[in-house]
Specification:
Elements (H helix, E strand, L loop, with lengths): L3 E8 L17 E6 L7 H7 L2 H12 L8 E5 L8 E6 L9 H14 L5 E5 L11 H14 L21 E8 L2 H26 L7 H9 L7 E5 L1 H7 L2 H7 L7 E8 L9 E11 L19 H15 L5 E11 L11 E3 L5 E3 L7 H16 L3 E6 L4 H6 L3 E6 L2 H14 L2 E4 L4 H5 L8 E2 L7 H10 L7 E5 L22 H11 L3
Parallel strand pairs: 1-6, 2-4, 2-5, 5-6, 9-10, 9-13, 12-16, 13-17, 14-15
Antiparallel strand pairs: 3-4, 7-8, 8-10, 11-12, 14-17
Helix pairs in contact: 3-4, 4-5, 5-9, 8-10, 9-15, 10-14, 12-15
The structure holds ligand BES, manganese (II) ion and zinc ion.
The site of manganese (II) ion (MN) has 4 residues, from loops.
């Protein structure tokens, strides 16, 4: 069972006030916010009533001044109907920096209250700046993302009295001044939260459970939200001539699949669809060019690109985004075997171009080559954005802070970069060009699948570009950001669900009518 958190919004006025507590109820753990120099909002002052004095005395003892990131924890406070009072330093004097600000505050707050089952948040941030209606909704998203935990396979749960840091169910009520407005905004964030959680769980699942056929079945669940989902099996892909994708999967007893998801939120519109394509290698041993044993278990996450696409399609459909969007994922398992492809093999892609497979561990680009071609050919999209845990080299270049961005189009690049800054899922554009492209010319075929030691992430991108015609295209190399993610305010999970917020933002900012 995965720990669940339930959130809802209530009116600030319904919390009662310290002075007259006629309507007051037990608030469980009450969270309030303090700004610099222990500034409180008016609603917070009213709510605290007599206990304001207690808070001020405790703050003095603890040297708590309301700085961002700090907090003051009061157990069994008097003068307020709560078991516990947590005062969280908010970001009062700093100008809000967009959605990530409140999102992170939601995550931080949850990080400070392990053990609480009933939580009431008085969302009344001090300071003169007006906070957008989306602020409380973003806070809620942060609460939900921070609370996600993948413990499906832990059978030895601690008894509740042994470990009160993880109650099975947590209820968080967020009290706001502008209830109706916040509820409207929250619908979008709920959809996003569900999509991100879905992506995270796909990345976290082990490869013996989540192989291509099972992954396709999970994508098929999107039909419940009104998404059209087509699954192409090996025979169908053979018919299309997808020799590159199929070559990667031929060493596995798990059959390959391709899934195409379509969300038509702009019914009747003639607008071209936007397209998102994901690498879905459910496990990457490297194949015959086998990887070293150390850390190979991480290669269950080599489908983080595909997971993001499924999570994104979930979010778009759940919030009924006014866009026509296509999500396509290539699902294969890369195994060494008597039937596996060999270094030196030459495969024919759906585009007709041939590839000499120098290294069977450079498999992601082979999978994407056929999926990119198929989507471009069949749907003539407005743009294609693909996500892939493509190269270890991008980790060397950018670490886990930024994903690599490669593109043939400045406008699309700019929009993606801006969405990255706004959401905190940051992108760094890398160069491309003919000199790099030349590095993958092959002696025997149209191209080879690796370019040598130098510029590994760039030559991988050049390879993909050979399967893109005139359509605006961007490739996001998420080997650093998509898996084995560091813990932070809004993520404690190995699989972070990276990219769902980024691409949802790209869509809502530019492609919804
Ligand atoms: N899935 C890996 C890339 C990867 C590495 C993802 C580390 C996440 C963390 C990819 O298929 C791969 O093996 N790439 C090779 C390419 C090389 C053979 C040219 C690599 O990066 O070593
Ligand atoms: Mn590989
Ligand atoms: Zn791989």
């Amino acid at each position: 069972m995965t720990q669940t958190v339930e959130t809802d919004f209530i009116a600030l006025g319904d919390l009662g006030s310290g002075g007259k507590r006629a309507r007051a109820r037990n608030l469980g753990t009450l969270v309030v916010f303090a700004g610099d120099d222990l500034a409180f909002g008016d609603a917070t002052r009213a709510l605290l009533g007599d206990s304001l004095d207690l808070v001020q005395r405790a703050a003095k003892v603890a040297k708590f001044k309301g700085a961002a990131g700090s907090s003051l924890d009061l157990l069994a406070p008097t003068g307020v109907q709560a078991d516990r009072l947590l005062v969280v330093g908010s970001h009062a004097k700093k100008k809000p920096e967009g959605e990530a600000e409140y999102l992170n505050l939601g995550g931080q707050t949850m990080g400070k209250i392990s053990g609480a089952e009933v939580i009431t948040v008085a969302f009344d941030l001090p300071g003169e700046t007006a906070h957008p209606a989306g602020a409380a909704a973003d806070f809620m998203l942060g609460v939900r993302l921070r609370s996600y935990k993948f413990d499906l396979y832990k059978t030895k749960k601690k008894k509740p009295d042994e470990d009160d840091s993880t109650p099975a169910k947590v209820k968080v009520s967020i009290a706001v001044a502008n209830l109706a407005e916040v509820r409207r905004e929250a619908k979008h964030r709920e959809a996003l939260a569900d999509g991100i959680v879905k992506a995270r769980s796909l990345v976290n699942e082990p490869a013996n459970v989540l192989y291509p056929v099972e992954f396709a079945a999970r994508a098929k669940e999107l039909e419940k939200l009104g998404v059209d989902v087509d699954i192409l099996d090996v025979k169908a892909m053979q018919k299309l001539g997808m020799g590159a994708l199929l070559g990667v999967g031929q060493g596995s007893v798990r059959e390959s699949r391709m899934v195409v998801m379509r969300w038509n939120g702009q019914k009747g519109s003639k607008a071209k669809p936007v397209a998102f394509i994901g690498k879905g290698v459910t496990f990457d041993t490297g194949g015959i060019s086998i990887k070293p044993a150390a850390g190979m278990e991480d290669m269950k996450g080599d489908m983080a690109g595909a997971a993001c696409v499924v999570g994104l399609m979930h979010a778009l459909a759940a919030r009924k985004a006014k866009v026509n969007a296509i999500g396509a994922i290539g699902l294969v398992e890369n195994m060494p075997d008597g039937n596996a492809q060999r270094p030196g093999d030459i495969v024919k892609t759906m585009s007709g171009q041939t590839v000499e497979v120098i290294n069977t561990d450079a498999e992601g680009r082979l999978v994407l080559a056929d999926v990119l071609w198929y989507i471009q050919d069949k749907y003539k999209p407005e743009f294609m954005v693909n996500l892939a845990t493509l190269t270890g080299a991008i980790l060397v270049a950018l670490g886990k802070e930024y994903a690599g961005l490669f593109s043939n189009n400045d406008e699309l690049s700019g929009r993606l970069t801006t969405a990255g800054t706004a959401t905190g899922e940051k992108l760094w554009r890398m160069p491309m060009g003919p000199a790099y492209d030349k590095m993958i010319d092959s002696q025997f075929a149209d191209m080879k699948n690796v370019g040598g030691r130098n510029a590994g992430s760039i030559t991988a991108a050049q390879f993909l570009q050979r399967f893109v015609n005139d359509v605006p295209w961007a490739h996001l190399d998420i080997a650093g950001t998509g898996m084995a993610s560091p813990s932070g305010d809004i993520n404690q999970s190995w699989g972070s669900g990276w990219g769902v917020r980024l691409l949802d933002r790209l869509v809502s900012d530019h492609y919804e009518s």
